[in-house]
Amino acid sequence: MAADSTTGRLLVSTPQLDDGLFHRSVILVLQHDDNGAQGVVLNKPLGADVDSVLPGWGEHIASPQTLFQGGPVQLDSALGLATFRGDAELPPGSKRLFDSVAIVDLDTPPLLVMPEVGGLRIFAGYAGWSSGQLEGELDRGSWFVVDSVAGDLLTGDPGRLWEQVLRRQRGELAFVAYYPSDPELN
């Protein structure tokens, strides 16, 4: 892992990043090394029924029970992320990424996976950066990099996650949570 890796941390968009999907987005970085980075947007629910896309999984996902847009890359694929209790042995079809977060192979029958899962969220697509691309965006000030906490992945209130993550930061960064959605209306 690169010394400046953001794996397991959050990328919180700065107010200047107003590009559609990334406007006020919070991204959990799943992997970041010299070859690039991948993550999922945690706060963009799609309102789509999971069972219509992945039969059998809908009853197992955390509230709000909807598919989330993980990013602009490979929107035709689904990515399951789960939290596991403590040092639980992971069930077949899952792989620990960091801490209590693991990726779940959604081709595995839910009944084999779910007994050990603390919570599950399913994302359509992901956010991805080629080698050096994320570093360039960080240098330009597009993202704040902050620590994640256990409840971020499975927040029950994704619409307020951007504000909540910023408010819990120390110092002046906490004040960014109060930045108006449209500064021209301020």
Descriptive notes:
There is one protein chain. The protein is mainly beta and 186 residues long. The chain has one domain: VC0467-like (3-Layer(aba) Sandwich). The protein is 12% helix and 35% strand. The chain has four helices and ten strands. The chain has helices spanning 50-53, 110-113, 133-139, 161-167, and strands at 9-13, 26-33, 36-41, 45-48, 67-69, 73-84, 94-98, 101-104, 117-130, 143-147. Strands 1, 2, 3, 4, 5, 6, 7, 8, 9 and 10 form a ten-stranded mixed sheet that branches. β2 and β3 form a beta hairpin. The longest helix is centred in the C-terminal third of the chain and has 7 residues, at 133-139. The mean pLDDT is 91.
Tags for this entry?
186 residues, mainly beta, ten-stranded mixed β-sheet, single chain, 4 helices, VC0467-like
Q: Main β-sheet, in a few words? A: 10 strands, mixed
Q: What would you report as the Rg, rounded to the nearest angstrom?
A: 16 Å
The tally of domains stands at 1
Low-confidence stretches: none
CATH topology, which one?
Answer: VC0467-like
From the spread of the alpha carbons, the general shape counts as: globular
**Count of discrete alpha- or pi-helical segments spanning 4 or more residues:** 4
The CATH architecture designation is 3-Layer(aba) Sandwich
Alpha-beta content class? mainly beta
Number of strands: 10
Range of strand content: 35-45%
> H/E element string?
EEEEHEEEEHEHEH
CATH level 1 name: Alpha Beta
Mean pLDDT: 91
Span between termini? 43 Å
Share of residues in helices: 10-25%
CATH homologous superfamily?
VC0467-like
